[in-house]
From TrEMBL:
Keyword set, alphabetical order: Coiled coil, DNA-binding, Plasmid, Transcription, Transcription regulation
Name by which UniProt lists this protein: Hydrogen peroxide-inducible genes activator
GO function term, MF aspect, one: DNA-binding transcription factor activity
Membership in a protein family: Belongs to the LysR transcriptional regulatory family.
Organism: Methylobacterium bullatum
Any one Gene Ontology cellular component term annotated for this protein: cytosol
């Protein structure tokens, strides 16, 4: 491919558009001598004169008149192409998408994102606050760069790093008979109207697996899909529920208390999930590190 003297073309267009060397040189932040050198180099390469210069005026030669509209169109199109590519680059750099289970998103993300926003004020953060299984699917499909979710079975195409472990607690009204207990057992809850987190949620799988056959001994009266809904029903006097401690903290509901549950004690591990072999963008990597540091400190 033949080399194109873009600097010479830029010098020629500037002289032609400004009508002289003085203003053309100033517009390019060049000396007149440097501008003249660029033009001469282009003319020598082409083998024709493009600018006719006298002591009084500057004019285009026939070759210059022929070149001007063609060169201007090409430079304008190239400039527009560069602007488009820069804009696309900014969009890629300035958007970070990640998944996060709702209990983490509601209570802890605001603190993390507030600090993150001070460092990256122009970044659009898109949070996919979906279920644990949906977040796994989003990361696997590339819809999210990473996810904050409940650790479960290993996936061949994903890497999961644990960042926090939390216990399940009983949530009940402050005037409930078990509210003042240091801890309660699942057996003590068999007579209570229980509100369970159902469906294919990670919390549901942990409880059913942890209780085994005793799961059917519980008096499950209501089934919901979100911890916030279960808490609202407890607040409304419909029963009690067992949820992760962070889910209770995210609700900010007065009049309710959380009591540790034993025999068996159940817990869940929160982890950062990424696609195996795929590096995070610099912004996503910074946000992921901020989330890990936050949970390491609490």
């Amino acid at each position: 491919m033949e080399r194109i003297d873009f600097l010479g073309i830029q010098a020629f267009l500037s002289i032609a558009n400004w009508g002289g060397f003085n203003r053309a040189a100033a517009s390019l932040n060049l000396s007149q001598a440097a501008l003249s050198h660029r033009l001469k180099k282009l003319e020598d390469e082409l083998g024709v004169k493009l600018i006719a210069r006298t002591t009084r005026q500057v004019s285009l030669t026939p070759a210059g008149v022929d070149l001007l509209p063609k060169a201007q169109r090409i430079v304008d199109e190239l400039s527009q192409l560069f602007d488009t590519l820069r804009e696309e680059g900014r969009e890629k750099q300035d958007v970070v998408r990640f998944g996060c289970v709702p209990t983490i998103a509601a209570c802890h993300l605001p603190v993390i994102l507030r600090a993150f926003g001070r460092t990256y004020p122009n970044v659009l953060v898109r949070v996919l606050d979906h279920s644990a299984t949906a977040i796994i699917d989003h990361v696997s499909a590339g819809d999210a760069e990473f996810g904050i979710t409940i650790m479960s079975a290993q996936h061949y195409d994903l890497d999961i790093t644990p960042i926090h472990q939390e216990a399940f607690v009983l949530v009940c009204p402050a005037n409930h008979r078990l509210a003042a207990a240091k801890a309660v057992t699942w057996s003590e809850l068999q007579s209570e109207a229980m509100i369970k987190i159902g469906g294919q949620t990670g919390n549901h799988l942990i409880i059913t697996t942890g209780l085994g056959r005793r799961y059917t001994d519980m008096n499950w009266v209501y089934e919901v899909h979100r911890g916030t809904t279960a808490i609202g029903m407890v607040l409304g006097g419909l029963g009690v529920t067992v949820i992760p401690r962070l889910a209770f903290q995210s609700a900010h509901q007065s009049g309710l208390v959380a009591v540790p549950v034993r025999a068996p004690s159940l817990s869940r591990t929160i982890g950062v999930v990424t696609r195996r072999g795929v590096s995070l963008s610099p912004v996503a990597d910074s946000l992921s590190r901020a989330i890990r540091d936050y949970f390491a400190a609490i």
